[in-house]
UniProtKB/TrEMBL annotation:
InterPro entries: EamA_dom (IPR000620), EmrE-like (IPR037185)
Domain of life: Bacteria
Transmembrane segments: 12-29, 35-51
Keywords per UniProt: Membrane, Transmembrane, Transmembrane helix
Protein name: EamA domain-containing protein
Organism encoding this protein: Vreelandella olivaria
Keyword set includes Magnesium: no
Amino acid sequence: MSGLCVDIDGIKLSLLNPFFGVLLAYLILGEPLRVTGLIGAALIVIGLFLSNQARARAPQC
């Protein structure tokens, strides 16, 4: 699919919504932080890091 150039920074940013949702629920509502939530947040951050690394190595449009 040559010629298809999509800027996906906004898509990557939207993947952080669950992370910020948990953080704000903890800060504002006093919800407890659980191990599963912390593991999920770590997986989100790792996934974003890996996708940024792959994008840096990919040919630019």
